[in-house]
Amino acid sequence: MMTTTTADQRRPAVPRHQDATVPRLKFLCVDGHGDPNTSPAYASAVQALYSVSYAAKFAVQKAGGITFKVSALEGLWWTEDLSTFSAARKSEWDWTMMIRQPDALTGDLVERLAEQLAAKKSMPAARELRLISFEEGAAAQVLHVGPYATEAPTIARLHEFIRQQGFTFDGHHHKHHEIYLGDPRRSAPEKLRTIIRQPYAAR
């Protein structure tokens, strides 16, 4: 996950950074606080996200709608006091975990499926989910390959890349964004693939 770093670290081969304009998209999401590695609330939130997303997939298809795959897990990470945003103080992190959804998914269907799962599967976290429309706009991103714990130099280079182009970000309006293409339960740490994205604005 995230950590603060200094920009003057020695650089190995630099992954290719990309500029992107991220359009308005629909997400199922849940908010929380605390260390993702130890927080029971985090684990429950992610379980609820996946459970409702898969239930929505089958419900939409059963109703004769589109066929789609459940998308990757994504996360927004920040702290109210950005000086505490470091791997040494993960207990102070705020987060929003998200899974992208098709336009066909409605808030009424999410509410119904979440209530069913909460009642039948003893999954109260499902009631905390919300469906949002989220537009990130201008951003830079890079693919990180390897354990989450080794992301720091990649993040530092991405931030430096943004600043060199004359742009800025504040960590609140422009939250650190990660898209998890690998499943840590099934992939070796060195093979995990994570898109690290940082939205930005003009100075």
Structure description:
- The protein is an alpha+beta fold and 203 residues long.
- The chain has one domain (18-202): Regulatory factor, effector binding domain (Multidrug-efflux Transporter 1 Regulator Bmrr, Chain A, Alpha-Beta Barrel).
- It is 25% helix and 31% strand.
- The strands form 2 sheets. Strands 1-3-2-6-7-4 form a 6-stranded antiparallel beta barrel. It has a two-stranded antiparallel sheet with strand order 5-8.
- It is globular, with a radius of gyration of 18 Å.
Set out the fold topology.
Elements: E1 18-33, H1 40-62, E2 73-78, E3 94-101, H2 107-120, E4 130-145, H3 152-164, E5 167-168, E6 176-180, E7 193-199, E8 201-202
List keywords for this structure.
alpha+beta; two-stranded antiparallel sheet; globular; 3 helices; 8 strands; Multidrug-efflux Transporter 1 Regulator Bmrr, Chain A; six-stranded antiparallel β-barrel; 203 residues; disordered N terminus
Poorly predicted residue ranges: 1-14
Radius of gyration, Cα only, in angstroms? 18 Å
**What is the N-to-C succession of helices and strands?**
EHEEHEHEEEE
Kindly report the spatial arrangement of strands forming the biggest sheet: 1-3-2-6-7-4
Compact description:
This protein is an alpha+beta fold. 25% of the residues lie in helices and 31% in strands.
